[in-house]
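Lab notebook, bench 4. Still working through the backlog of constructs that have no structural model yet. Next entry is a single chain of 90 residues. Request: give me the structure tokens for it.
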Amino acid sequence: MPLLAKDFVPEKSKGGMFKSGRIQSFQEVLEAANIWIKENPAIDVLNVETVVLPNIHESDEEGSMDTELWTGGESSSHWYQLLRVWYRQD
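Model written out:
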């Protein structure tokens, strides 16, 4: 059985002209992971880890599965904490 991983990334809503977008709380991300685990009884959860990545919501990035996430020296970066569930499936 191959080792698989599923990421639970905090969703970000679009902001307005004078309002920043809302990022889901870590508790909401944890609840989404727990729901997914309960709804998939055929999986064998091996490990759950927190991962912190930069700029995953930027338009030129591919989210948590991007192999190259960019952060510059003088420009600002936004870092996001997500959950990664490692599992095997029958």
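Notes after review: The chain has a mean pLDDT of 84. DSSP finds one helix and three strands in the chain. Flag for follow-up if needed.
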